Amino acid sequence: MEPQVNAWSLPGGILGARENLNESVLRQLAEKVDVREVAHLEQLSIFSEPDRMPGPRTVASTFLGLIPRTADPHLPDDTSWHPVAALPEMAFDHRTMVLHAQSRLAAKLSYTNIAFALAPAEFTMSGLREIYCAALGYPVDATNLQRVLTRRAVLTPTGETARVGRSGGRPAALYRFSDRTLRVTDEFAALRPPG
Amino acid sequence: MEPQVNAWSLPGGILGARENLNESVLRQLAEKVDVREVAHLEQLSIFSEPDRMPGPRTVASTFLGLIPRTADPHLPDDTSWHPVAALPEMAFDHRTMVLHAQSRLAAKLSYTNIAFALAPAEFTMSGLREIYCAALGYPVDATNLQRVLTRRAVLTPTGETARVGRSGGRPAALYRFSDRTLRVTDEFAALRPPG
DNA sequence: ACAAAAGTGTTAGTTGTACACCCATGG
DNA sequence: CCATGGGTGTACAACTAACACTTTTGT
User: Fold this and answer.
1) Does residue B129 lie within any of the structural domains?
2) Are B140 and A21 inside 8 Å of each other by CB?
3) Is the Cβ of A21 closer than 8 Å to some Cβ of chain B?
4) Is B60 helix (H, G, I), strand (E, B) or coil?
């Protein structure tokens, strides 16, 4: 809509009278963009500038929602996925919202098990590594990723191995996440409680 | 008010038409409880359950506000400070709000310079240690606190020393915070970018 | 001289990165 | 038997907690 005809905007809508914000987000994602596999949802900032949009005063409460890499919702025609590294022109304050979400995700990847919400049920270490690289924006060593996540008991080996491609190579072990709910795995970098 | 006659509630109020949420918080703290020295303010969760309070539907946006230990606002008669370790009966979901704020503060003390907002302009290490102990709820070693904050360049020595009490002892060196705005000092516990 | 408070040095343990090396598979 | 991708072991560096020891003051 004017004055942002060519700009993209995030999905969103009005809070219903008998729902809380989380319910509202899940409802709108399902109704508007057919996204129904939200594995993790958390609040981000509120955007409350009086003139953030034309028209009646609105306050936008933003969320970070994660779905597994394998999800493939049936997007409507006016909707599509965009890599965060190459965002199109975005309406109002929506670019800022996306950047907030990106940095929150990057931060939580380092001290929580939040990747459970991005990975499929079972995966190889190199598959998981791709997810971390994409979300963090820099290369991650699969070796050390394995060690860190194993020490923190974030990963559980399934004992199975993945089938190998036509180019050969040793078959990769399959893992799953020990928990499928957010857990802080590295609480205090410094100033831990004594004992 | 009914049905929470004897319960305490946090200061708060209605968002004005021409202010954003930050401005609203600062206005309400000043007007309602004479708190005007807010050195740091950040958003916490939104509470949006449809029935969280009787009466018309409200959505509460909560904040963590920090003021220096030396601040002494003139509180109205119906208002007082309460230690988080011994909260009185609290109205509606306000206890949950306080606990959220407490854990956010504790977390940020470990990886940011957020204590600048709690300390006076100049302070001794043992004074700062008391602040950390109170906020974290467990003893903190002044020695290691000094080392950690110095290495991260969070503290700057003033060169001055504090006057010593009547019981003797070596006079303490005075420090100030290098920045008086929030800075992340220990960004990645794990999975740092290479190089 | 002694007690009290502050500051320094040392040690040991944990965690993380980097990288060389070994293993399993397909062609 | 070689290329390819996966997994393991080791070396090194950084950081922290704990605590003994030294320094500086007032009485």
Assistant:
1) yes
2) no
3) yes
4) strand
